[in-house]
Design a protein that fits this description.
The chain contains 6 helices and 2 strands. By secondary structure, it is mainly alpha-helical. A hairpin with a 2-residue loop joins strand 1 and strand 2.
């Protein structure tokens, strides 16, 4: 059972790229990666505008709150690199032979996904609140679509990262069940012999071996029969 747990087969098995890309976890990971690009890309490119034509200083269109833009960019970048890291981990996860190492990876994935879900929830609430308080001007309206896109995809990112956390939790539970199965079925002592298979009903018979029927009543020379002399 070593290496065949936590949602993957035995270590050292061949990796099929098409099957890997079709997995739900891979699809969710790529979706979260794209959403992170949309969020921080929208804020960086269009959510900073000049205060006026004579003042080149840039300001954040989310209620002129620099913290809102900085937070959205930071979460997007963290999610971007996090998706890349765990995508590579997922790709080589089957090559990990140690069950303990697999357990650590799955727990790390679970913790990171849950933490990012919370951060995206905060980002969505923060950006939406600041956008509601923003006074719409001509310059602010230039980046209005980008601001709405950042808020929308922040909300979608919550759903995706929650799904990734649930997927990691399922892998952890599956791996725990497999580990318990391996512990119960096999001896912990490497020198211990494997238990034998039971034969029959499993109850030893105390009766001695008996000869086939009718053999005891047969004599070599039946009574009343004489061998003729020649």
């Amino acid at each position: 059972m070593e290496g065949a747990s936590f949602g993957a087969g035995r270590a050292g098995g061949a990796i099929d790229p098409l099957d890997f890309l079709k997995q739900l976890q891979t699809i969710l990971r790529l979706t979260a990666w794209i959403f992170s690009i949309v969020v921080f890309g929208s804020i960086v490119n269009e959510c900073y505008v000049n205060k006026d034509s004579q003042n080149p200083q840039l300001f954040c269109i989310f209620n002129n709150n620099e913290s809102a833009c900085s937070y959205g960019i930071a979460i997007g970048i963290i999610a971007f690199f996090g998706c890349i890291f765990f995508f590579v981990v997922d790709l080589y996860f089957q090559q990990i032979s140690s069950v303990k190492d697999r357990k650590r990876v799955v727990l790390l994935d679970l913790g990171f996904s849950g933490f990012l879900s919370f951060l995206w929830f905060v980002a969505f609430c923060f950006l939406a609140n600041q956008w509601q308080q923003t006074t719409m001007t001509k310059r602010v309206s230039q980046g209005a679509d980008a601001a709405r896109a950042a808020i929308t995809f922040s909300f979608f990112s919550i759903i995706v990262w929650v799904a990734l956390a649930v997927k990691a939790l399922q892998r952890y539970r599956l791996g725990t069940d497999m580990s318990l199965f391996a512990t119960d079925q096999f001896a912990t002592d490497p020198n211990a012999a494997y238990p034998g298979y039971p034969t029959g009903s499993g109850i030893e018979s105390t009766e001695t071996y008996q000869s086939p029927p009718f053999t005891e009543t047969l004599d070599a020379n039946p009574k009343g029969y004489q061998v003729p002399a020649y």
